[in-house]
Amino acid sequence: MQAHLARLSDRQVRIAGSWALNDTARDVLAHVQGRMDEVFDRPTPFTKNAFTVKGARPDNLTAEVM
């Protein structure tokens, strides 16, 4: 029973961590897209949408803004 609870708790921590990483990556994406208006002269939608987020998962706690 103790081992089962430890595994369950570890999984919940990993899920919460992946949510936090994904929220942060989405915030970074929004910031980058918002700054494009200041950095570039009339950026096109193609330029603004050039970046994307590759989200974290509980089994891979890595989020990327590409």
Give the helix/strand layout.
Blueprint: H1 2-39, H2 45-48, E1 53-54, E2 64-65
What number of structural domains do the residues give?
1
Total number of helices? 2
Give the neighbour order of strands across the main sheet: 1-2
Low-confidence stretches: none
Which labels suit this protein?
single chain, 66 residues, mainly alpha, two-stranded antiparallel ribbon, 2 helices, 2 strands, rod-shaped
Describe the structure.
This protein has one domain. By secondary structure, it is mainly alpha-helical. It has a two-stranded antiparallel sheet with strand order 1-2. The protein contains two helices and two strands, in the order H-H-E-E.
Short recap of the structure:
This protein has one domain (2-65). Helix content is 64%, strand content 6%.
